[in-house]
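re: ur question from yesterday

yeah so i grabbed the chain u mentioned. its 353 aa long if i counted rite. heres the sequnce exactly as i have it in my notes:
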Amino acid sequence: MKYLLWIFLISLIFFRYFTTRPVYQNGDLIRLTGTVYSDPIVYENARYLKLASLKIYVPLYPEISYGSRVVLEGEVVDGKIKKGKIISVEENVGTMANFRKKIISFYQSSLPEPYAGLLAGITLGSKGALTSDFWEKVKYVGVAHVVVASGTNVTFVVMFLISTLTLVLPRRKAIPFVILGIILYLFISGFDAPLIRSAVMAGVAFLGVESGRLINTWRNLVVTALLMLIYNPGWLIDVGFLLSFVSTASIMLFEKRVRSKLLMLPKILREGMSTSFAAQIGVAPILFVTFGQFNIWSPIINALVLWTIPMIMIFGAVGGVVGLVVPVLGKIVLYLSYPLLWWFVKIVTIFTV
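ran it thru and got these structure tokens back, copy pasting raw so excuse formatting
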């Protein structure tokens, strides 16, 4: 019976994928209307976003941001719209998108670039806040996963909450508060699809690992992935979804083994490097096939910067929220993150010279 259930779930995914996906032909002139749920990437002469399974390049102005309701027109060429025309933009549809934009604006008014954009990326997953030059650098050195809406953000939220709460509560009693913390983080950072996917997967994996039943953890992770694909079969070919699943699974499978081989390293480096190495084992082939390159120094670079992420996220979240009420106090909190941001930028710059 259980095998029939697996076959049914997988068959349902493929049925929904082939019956619901839009099919575009080269030369099709189309008009798209939708809400932007992922920060567009800003390049020197264009803005890149994804809508209705299409990669779209539009002019820099009028500005499009997370939460914008847009109407676009353009010609499909190889699954992309390279010269899209913006018909209309309704900015910041929804309270949370507005709240998020205000926090990012506060970062930008309090810190210089690229520090403000880096803080927005790490804390809120806002890759659109990064300068195009620095965005290319973080992609090149292999740390883009911590400055976009990804499972890394959620993982660090979970790590910080569980390590803090278990000081005063038994681990099992701390779990509901960890889940609540994940939900609150999503409210602050925005309900971007990659964050939701990663939050669900990280939550399932975390609860399973804490129960000590690895087999059940794998089963729960796979079932969760299948249910998410039934909800949105388009994620079947989404690199972000694949990376979320594979990195989570790879950490579950290899992290303890890798950590046991790095006992000679200081704990502050060992934790970041073991997690990074474990994740890289799974995602490296995907990154190489997808983007045609992989930075061999990426695990070391990750280990050098990952230890800064929890504190940057704390200072960013607290400083951003407080700053909207008491700007002076909020800026003081943000200034505490400056040395950590400087270190992150310095490491990235050294390895891109």
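noticed a couple things. The two ends are 58 Å apart (CA to CA). also The CA atoms of residues 201 and 339 lie 32 Å apart.
anyway ttyl
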